[in-house]
């Protein structure tokens, strides 16, 4: 793109962002029905007015007063401005209007938006009126015209002017609604289905919500009238965007802006103009080809060198990891202006969960604090650093004009070290404000010797307290200023450090103003006694010590690099010498082969000897030749003149003849001399090379002897080291990434002390500076604190002019940046907090650090970037992307048609723009496309496996390394389960896009109850031991879901029933703050996390299920430090690849421990494998053919504990563990416990059981998996484990039995009893039965089953008798008891190894004979019988209809009696046939059928059949007989009579 095109593209984006932000609007507040209890002296209430007869005459303020008095004991607390929310339009309706299609198709949106906001005073008088910018735009917009918002302010002003001085009764408010609100929503209502629009307009207009705040009066009367500001427009960034756009539209090219006050903004926005996936110069983790290995070696050597590493460090027992140190050195390393690899103004870091982003920030803070202290030491007196800022007038009695750092090198350098930390995520900001000042953690990073040296020095304390109350107190860095609003230390046991100011919103600013700043202003003693000079002396001495150490390391590093180069050159030179020597030998041998004395040597020494021999042999020749040549030269000189030529011509001719004759006679000698000359030159070159080689070797040995501490650091960063960053096994990669060149213990100690002394220098500078004290007083009043005015002399709010506010603000924030090295705020508060810091002037902050940048929309950072010089942007595009409401998504589509995708797409974020302009990063491939990310952090220290494994596989392609320590035993024992688990809970969601499942809510309740019970018990124990109460006890547990509807359902479920031990406030706090969507928990962590997915198997849920992307799963899993419980129905969620991957990792988490146990025999690995096995409740339930909703009471009855339980489905588990199982060996000993001699014998026995739709033999897979688990639990061996729950092992065999019987026995049962009713369905319609149903059916059909077996060999003899089948039923009954004990999800008792052993005897092993002396029946070793029964089932009688029977010549008993001539009645005849055993009572199915008389086996032999009939809608069965045998049957009956 040309510079002009770049400028235009960014201008379009700025226009788009401005309007998008200006139109953004939040949700309407919630109607609280009854007034809530005040918290900390504040009552925030919102209500819908109650209808009364005199409603039109009453005011909302009157009703607000009544509600407030009802919960404040009538104390008449002051009430703020009261706001009435007029009109209430569902957000979904707005989405539908914008998109011209139904709203959120994924999840139901219950939120509504206000159309207009009306403010009134506590006495009901009009105060303010605000129209919704969004609804105004929707009313006026034509197509995608962004200018339709014009006239918005004018319309509002006209309404305000009309309402001025009006008392706002409900009647007046109703009129305002009709005039102002109704016209706004007519168009939206028109998009609803026919007939709904008119009704909705009335409904939306009738909704009114009243919101107010009441505050308990303070004793001193200050702030008696509470402030309560409300606004419909959530436009946090529009003002800053407008200012940037104004500057952007000024004349000038894009390149001009890269050099001006908006240089950082321009550099950042350029990231949206790049299309190529790989924008960087150096891939820090390398690519597949790894062609740039040399460049990467050079990069790491330079960036991690001592000359680039900051002098100070934040005290910690642990060093930064490799990539953390790279990021720190690039951001704040030394020598930035002369670096070979300078950092961009926009530097990005890719920080996956738990990779130490806060740790990295701490070292950046330490580097800046140390450098700032060095600059402060350049001043003899602190106040020499400042110059006065002139204001229009003086405001305070005891404070003059503000002071700023003097313009110049030192002052500018100090300002350049200020740090602003921003995020769109409140949790990230709060985390920084919590962790940086933590004195306990700070001191834990210092060893005993450092503590002694620092804490026992004269500067380890300060004078603190109000006048006449001052005393000496221990201090780290203004520790005594960290107080609450009552002046008490926040943590008396562990004094902290005032190194971070968590600002942003008004509440945070007021807290910091009234706590830290107030304490410092009124309690901080003015520094005296030359403490600043003393602090400087200590600091500078330590600075010199560390600097000299780093300089030595850098010199040594340079020597090491030279040594490396020499070592690299040494083999090359040696090879060249050997090659040249070999060539000389070969060439000399070749050229002398025809000589009388050829060369026969093999080394350079032999060459030397041969050349010397030639010299000896040709010495006479050369002497004679030299003499003749000399004579010739002499003759030539004498014959050179005219006269000489005449007289000496003869002599000259003789000399030439002699020489020519000699040369002809000595030709062999000439060749030898030429040969020697040629090879003497080559030999001399070889000798010079050998001398060079020898000299190089001597130098290398000398450098090795002179090497001292620190030199190895550079030698380590070589090609092999850099390759191990991204390649090699896990251990080599981990070793590489944990390496830090500055890891020397003594060096760490010296750097720690330097940082501590730097804090002392800064503190003493501040305490001795009157200018600083003056500015602190002004800053408090600037932020709204009362102080004594210069005119009145009374304590009052000080009103500064706008001009003076803008003049003083930079100086005051300079003061704050010196006092607290880190200022933090959310993006939403930047524009308001720094409204007096003008964009376009000299940036206020040196370094902007953005956290959780992947969650921030691109335009959120513009205001902060415009006020900073450099930016370090930390985030992770693989976590939650920017959260956008549905209406804003539709607005983007309407407004962003001209805008480039990187500025407006669903994945557009601050992180992505920053990554695009960062030259140092990594090209990550996720299988779909490549993405360039910033400097990647890879060492994870938050979650243990399997949570780490889930994140690492789903989102980071296995690039992360885990260094998280396991929890201590006491903590681990307090968790709900011994390991992370998938908890399969099926049920039906509420529907209409409400994905909450009641059964899952019940399961969550049990987990929360357990957590509270244990947390309260632990707290009570601690309280008894310490004598101190902990206040509210909240367990470290989060309940997370992808869906708001599930969150609301879970909150309602918990609030409906509280556990007895939990405090009510704690329980309600948990329901509100510890249950939420994934988006609300990014940046947070807890010991345990429950991830509740909701939804069911209906097709209407598929969109919601597919909505859960890798980012959501990644964030949810990585919130859990030690336990993750996923509650979902896998039957529904298996279509989601990310969730299926999560389940696979949970299912197989035990495998690595079992493998380790097999290798090492370590008992702790075996125990870990047992603990991490899935549980029975981890398996999905099958309902096919036996849906619990349609189970007969007979199937559920408690008959010898034969309680119905749905079948478990092990298929997904078997698939998940299948790959690992291939490497496990089942030996003969393992197979013998179920009676097989070997694995081959086992496989042969069940080879014909391939029943899966993919051809898998699930019967065999379940048996083999069960045998492996038997091995793990020691079942059937001497080491049997009776302390573990073996239910999961038993379920493998249960599933094998169910599959086996489905294949082998169910077809037979269907053949002999197709109409037997099970689960209210005929057996012939069912695909499966549970074990209990098999038992009952077999017992009832035992004789029929026996009769179906044709005895073809002795093995089938017993099976042809009913007793054998009844024994099978009894065995099934015993096994079913074991099965049900393992299968029920709400069971409390565990299944022991002994129970599994007894269950296996039912399936495979018959050790004892039954009462008849026969071998007991083995359920899964009777395949021959089952097959024989099925083969014989065709011979058994079937049931006919009445018409079929008649057509085949059968008749009922009444007709048989008539045809046979008998006079006996049919009733009596049936009784006689029953008595003789030809009939029996029908014992199948429903109770109503059990009085039917049908043929017995004896009756079938007589020729009778079963006929099905119907009477009055009831089905019944009876016997019919062949008409041909009528006479025979009658005779039989009469003989009995």
Would you write up a description of this structure?
With 1537 residues, the protein is α/β, with parallel strands linked by helices. The protein contains 62 helices and 39 strands. A nine-stranded mixed sheet has the order 6-19-20-7-18-17-10-16-13, with helices on both faces. Strand 17, helix 31 and strand 18 form a beta-alpha-beta unit. Helix 12 packs parallel to helix 13. The longest helix has 61 residues. The radius of gyration is 46 Å and the shape is flat. It starts with a helix and ends with a helix. About 2% of the residues have low confidence.
Give keywords.
1537 residues, flat, 62 helices, 49% helix, five-stranded antiparallel beta sheet, alpha/beta, nine-stranded mixed beta sheet
Task: Briefly summarize what is shown.
By secondary structure, the protein is an alpha/beta fold.
* Helical segment count: 62
Mean pLDDT: 85
- What is the strand arrangement across the widest sheet? 6-19-20-7-18-17-10-16-13
Query: Structural class given helices, strands, pairing?
Result: alpha/beta
Bin the strand percentage: 5-15%
* Major sheet size, sense and barrel closure: 9 strands, mixed
Number of DSSP E strands: 39
Taking all Cα atoms into account, the compactness measure Rg is 46 Å
In terms of quaternary structure, the protein is single chain
**First-to-last CA distance:** 112 Å
- The geometry reads as flat
Low-pLDDT runs of 5+ residues are 708-715, 1184-1204
Question: Helix proportion of residues, in percent?
Answer: 40-55%
């Amino acid at each position: 793109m040309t510079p002009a095109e770049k400028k235009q593209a960014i201008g379009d984006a700025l226009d788009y962002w401005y309007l998008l932000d200006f139109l953004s609007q939040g949700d309407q507040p919630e109607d609280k029905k009854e007034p809530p209890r005040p918290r900390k002296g504040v009552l925030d209430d919102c209500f819908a007015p109650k209808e009364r007869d005199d409603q039109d005459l009453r005011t909302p303020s009157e009703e607000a007063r009544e509600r407030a008095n009802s919960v404040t004991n009538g104390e008449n607390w002051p009430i703020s401005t009261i706001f009435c929310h007029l009109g209430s339009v569902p957000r979904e309706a707005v989405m539908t209007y914008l998109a011209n299609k139904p709203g959120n198709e994924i999840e139901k949106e219950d939120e509504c938006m206000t159309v207009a906001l009306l403010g009134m005073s506590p006495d009901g008088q009009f105060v303010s009126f605000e129209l919704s910018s969004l609804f105004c735009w929707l009313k006026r917009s034509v197509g995608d015209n962004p200018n339709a918002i014009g006239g918005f302010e004018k319309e509002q002003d006209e309404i305000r002017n009309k309402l001025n001085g009006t008392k706002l009764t409900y009647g007046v408010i109703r009129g305002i609604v009709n005039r102002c609100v109704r016209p706004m929503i007519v168009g939206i209502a028109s998009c609803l289905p026919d007939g709904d629009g008119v009704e909705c307009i009335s409904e939306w207009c009738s909704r009114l919500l009243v919101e107010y705040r009441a505050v308990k009066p303070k004793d001193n009367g200050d702030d008696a009238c509470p402030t309560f500001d409300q606004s419909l427009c959530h436009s946090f960034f529009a003002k800053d965007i407008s200012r940037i756009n104004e500057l952007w539209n000024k004349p000038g090219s894009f390149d001009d802006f890269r050099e001006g006050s908006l240089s950082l903004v321009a550099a950042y926005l350029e990231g949206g103009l790049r299309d190529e996936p790989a924008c960087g110069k150096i891939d820090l983790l390398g690519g597949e080809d790894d062609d740039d290995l040399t460049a990467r070696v050079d990069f790491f050597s330079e960036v991690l060198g001592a000359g680039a590493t900051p002098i100070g460090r934040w005290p910690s027992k642990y060093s930064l990891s490799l990539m953390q140190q790279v990021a720190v050195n690039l951001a704040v390393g030394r020598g930035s202006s002369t670096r070979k690899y300078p950092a961009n103004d926009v530097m990005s870091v890719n920080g996956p969960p738990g990779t130490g982003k806060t740790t990295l920030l701490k070292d950046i803070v330490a580097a800046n604090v140390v450098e700032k202290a060095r600059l402060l030491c350049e001043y003899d007196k602190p106040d020499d650093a400042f110059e006065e800022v002139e204001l229009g007038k003086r405001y305070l009695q005891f404070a003059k004009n503000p002071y700023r750092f003097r313009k110049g090198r030192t002052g500018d350098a100090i300002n350049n070290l200020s740090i602003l930390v921003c995020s769109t995520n409140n949790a990230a900001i709060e985390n920084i404000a919590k962790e940086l000042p933590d004195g306990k953690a700070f001191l834990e990073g210092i060893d005993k010797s450092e503590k002694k040296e620092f804490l026992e020095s004269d500067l380890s304390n300060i004078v603190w307290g109000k006048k006449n109350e001052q005393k000496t107190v221990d201090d780290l860095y203004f520790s005594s200023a960290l107080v609450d609003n009552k002046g008490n230390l926040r943590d008396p046991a562990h004094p902290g450090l005032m190194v971070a100011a968590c600002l942003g919103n008004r509440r945070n600013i007021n807290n910091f103003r009234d706590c830290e700043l107030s304490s410092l202003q009124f309690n901080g003693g003015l520094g005296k006694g030359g403490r600043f000079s003393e602090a400087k002396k200590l600091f500078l001495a330590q600075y010199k010590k560390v600097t000299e150490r780093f300089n030595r390391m850098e010199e040594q590093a340079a020597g090491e690099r030279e040594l490396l180069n020499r070592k690299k050159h040494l083999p090359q030179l040696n090879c060249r010498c050997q090659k040249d020597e070999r060539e000389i030998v070969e060439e000399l041998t070749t050229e002398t082969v025809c000589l009388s004395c050829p060369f026969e040597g093999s080394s350079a020494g032999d060459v030397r000897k041969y050349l010397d021999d030639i010299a000896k042999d040709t010495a006479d020749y050369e002497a004679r030749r030299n003499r003749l040549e000399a004579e010739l030269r002499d003759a030539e000189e004498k014959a050179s003149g005219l006269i000489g030529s005449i007289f000496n011509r003869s002599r000259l001719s003789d000399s030439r003849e002699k020489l020519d004759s000699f040369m002809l006679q000595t030709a062999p000698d000439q060749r030898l001399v030429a040969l020697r000359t040629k090879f003497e030159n080559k030999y001399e070159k070889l000798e010079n090379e050998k001398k060079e080689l020898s000299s190089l070797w001597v130098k290398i040995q000398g450098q090795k002897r002179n090497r001292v501490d620190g030199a190895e650091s550079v030698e380590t960063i070589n090609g092999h080291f850099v390759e191990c960053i991204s390649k090699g096994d896990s251990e080599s990669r981990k070793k590489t990434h944990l390496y830090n060149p500055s890891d020397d213990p003594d060096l760490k100690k010296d750097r720690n002390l330097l940082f501590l002394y730097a804090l002392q220098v800064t503190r003493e500078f501040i305490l001795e500076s009157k200018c600083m004290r003056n500015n602190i007083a002004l800053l408090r009043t600037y932020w709204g604190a009362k102080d004594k005015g210069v005119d009145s002399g009374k304590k009052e709010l000080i009103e500064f002019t706008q001009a003076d506010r803008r003049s003083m603000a930079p100086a005051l924030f300079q003061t704050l940046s010196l006092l607290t090295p880190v200022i933090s705020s959310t993006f939403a508060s930047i524009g308001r907090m720094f409204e007096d810091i003008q964009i376009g002037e000299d940036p206020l902050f040196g370094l902007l650090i953005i956290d959780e940048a992947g969650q921030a929309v691109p335009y959120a950072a513009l205001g902060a970037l415009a006020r900073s010089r450099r930016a370090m942007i930390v985030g992770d595009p693989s976590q939650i992307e920017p959260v956008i409401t549905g209406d804003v998504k539709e607005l983007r589509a309407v407004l962003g048609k001209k805008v480039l995708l990187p500025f407006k797409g669903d994945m557009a974020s601050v992180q992505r723009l920053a990554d695009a302009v960062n030259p140092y990063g990594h090209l990550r491939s996720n299988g779909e496309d490549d993405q360039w990310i910033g400097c990647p952090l890879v060492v994870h220290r938050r979650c243990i496996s399997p949570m780490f494994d889930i994140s690492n596989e789903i989102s980071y392609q296995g690039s992360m390394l885990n260094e998280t320590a396991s929890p201590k035993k006491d903590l681990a024992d307090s968790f709900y389960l011994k390991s992370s688990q998938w908890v399969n809970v099926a049920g039906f969601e509420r529907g209409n896009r409400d994905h909450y499942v009641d059964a899952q809510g019940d399961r969550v309740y049990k987990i929360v109850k357990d957590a509270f019970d244990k947390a309260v018990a632990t707290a009570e124990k601690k309280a008894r031991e310490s004598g101190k109460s902990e206040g509210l006890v909240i367990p470290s547990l989060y309940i997370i879901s992808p869906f708001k509807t599930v969150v609301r359902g879970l909150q309602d479920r918990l609030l409906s029933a509280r556990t007895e031990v939990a405090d009510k406030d704690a329980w309600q706090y948990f329901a509100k703050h510890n249950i939420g969507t994934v988006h609300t928990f990014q940046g947070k962590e807890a010991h345990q996390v429950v991830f509740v997915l909701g939804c069911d198997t209906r097709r209407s849920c598929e969109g919601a299920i597919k909505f859960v992307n890798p980012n959501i799963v990644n964030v949810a899993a990585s919130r859990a430090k030690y336990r993750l419980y996923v509650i979902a129905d896998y039957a529904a969620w298996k279509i989601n690849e990310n969730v299926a991957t999560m389940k696979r990792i949970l299912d197989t988490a035990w495998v690595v421990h079992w493998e380790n146990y097999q290798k090492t025999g370590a008992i702790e690995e075996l125990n870990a494998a047992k603990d991490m096995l899935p549980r029975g409740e981890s398996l999905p339930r099958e309902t096919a053919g036996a849906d619990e909703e349609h189970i007969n009471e007979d199937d559920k009855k408690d008959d010898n504990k034969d309680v119905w339980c749905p079948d478990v489905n092990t298929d997904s588990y078997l698939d998940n563990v299948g790959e690992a199982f291939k490497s496990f060996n089942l030996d003969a000993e393992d197979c013998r416990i179920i009676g097989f001699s070997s694995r081959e014998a086992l496989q042969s026995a069940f080879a014909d059981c391939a029943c899966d739709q993919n051809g898998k033999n699930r019967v065999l897979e379940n048996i083999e998996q069960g045998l492996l688990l038997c091995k793990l639990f020691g079942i059937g061996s001497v080491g049997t484990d009776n302390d573990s729950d073996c239910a999961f092992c038993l379920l493998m065999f249960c599933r094998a039995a169910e599959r086996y019987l489905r294949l082998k026995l169910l077809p037979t049962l269907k053949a002999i009893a197709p109409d037997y009713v099970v689960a209210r369905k005929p057996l012939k319609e069912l695909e499966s039965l549970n074990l209990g149903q098999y038992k009952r059916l077999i017992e009832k059909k035992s004789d029929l089953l026996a009769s179906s077996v044709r005895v073809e060999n002795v093995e089938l003899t017993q099976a042809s008798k009913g007793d054998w089948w009844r024994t099978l039923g009894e065995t099934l009954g015993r096994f079913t008891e074991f099965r049900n004990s393992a299968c029920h999800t709400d069971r409390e008792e565990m299944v022991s190894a002994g129970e599994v052993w007894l269950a296996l005897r039912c399936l495979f092993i018959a050790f004892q004979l039954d009462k008849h002396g026969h071998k007991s029946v083995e359920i899964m070793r009777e395949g021959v019988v089952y097959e024989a029964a099925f083969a014989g089932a065709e011979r058994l009688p079937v049931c006919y209809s009445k018409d079929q029977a008649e057509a085949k010549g059968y008749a009922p008993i009444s007709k048989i009696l008539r045809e046979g001539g008998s006079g006996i009645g049919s009733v009596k005849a049936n009784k006689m046939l029953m008595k003789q055993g030809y009939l029996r009572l029908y014992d199948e199915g429903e109770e109503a059928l059990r009085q039917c008389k049908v043929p017995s086996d004896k009756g079938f032999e007589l020729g009778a059949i079963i006929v099905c009939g119907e009477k009055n809608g009831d089905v019944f069965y009876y016997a019919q007989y062949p008409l041909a045998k009528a006479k025979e049957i009658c005779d039989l009956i009469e003989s009995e009579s």
